[in-house]
Amino acid sequence: MRTLLTFFLGLRAIMLIGSVGAIVGALLMFLQGGFYLAEAWHIALGTGHGFEHASERQVTVPVLEAVDAFLFGLVLVIFAYGIAIGFVFTLPEGYGDRLPAWMKVDGIGQLKASLSEVVIVVLIVMFARVVVESGGAFTYEMLVLPASILMIAIALRMIDLGSGHAKNGNGKLAKAKNTESE
């Protein structure tokens, strides 16, 4: 029985692969965000190869994409940290108290919630890019993306409420009150 338990505890190291992969993904997202900022800089200055018509392009789109990439990279860092500290390594006594609240991961549900919130933000940035690139030529087909974002957000909110949890004003999960019994 002891060897079986040792074997299953040894499998925790496999989760470290996911954590390292998330860190590599975060570094790539930060690099991509830097490229978007460089593109925005060249557009604003009207310099660089391929930027001959800089006056026709807007800086808004690459800046939005850079912010989006940096945000997703940050979430991947938190995701990697949550996997490593929450499931692979054990923190020394008192170390967890010194961490900021945003780095404290209570479980896989919190990691999934963070990732789904970022997906919504990424979709919003995609819609903003479409609006900026359309140049005011709006069509009904453009409403598909915001309608999808709204449905995803409502579904995630219903999942939060259905599980008996809702977020308080600080962004932390708090047990929802059961209003039917009161």
Notes on the structure:
This protein is mostly helical and 182 residues long. It has one domain. The chain contains five helices and two strands, in the order H-H-H-H-H-E-E. The chain has a two-stranded antiparallel sheet with strand order 1-2. The longest helix has 34 residues, at 12-45. It is globular. The termini are far apart.
Structural class: mainly alpha
Strand content: under 5%
Mean pLDDT value: 78
According to DSSP, the number of beta strands is 2
Major β-sheet annotation: 2 strands, antiparallel
- Report the helical percentage: 55-70%
How many H/I helical runs? Answer: 5
Order of SSEs: HHHHHEE
Using the alpha-carbon principal axes, give the shape.
Answer: globular
Radius of gyration: 21 Å
Number of domains: 1
Instruction: Give the low-pLDDT segments.
Output: 175-182
How widely separated are the two ends?
48 Å
Give the neighbour order of strands across the main sheet: 1-2
In quaternary terms, these chains amount to single chain
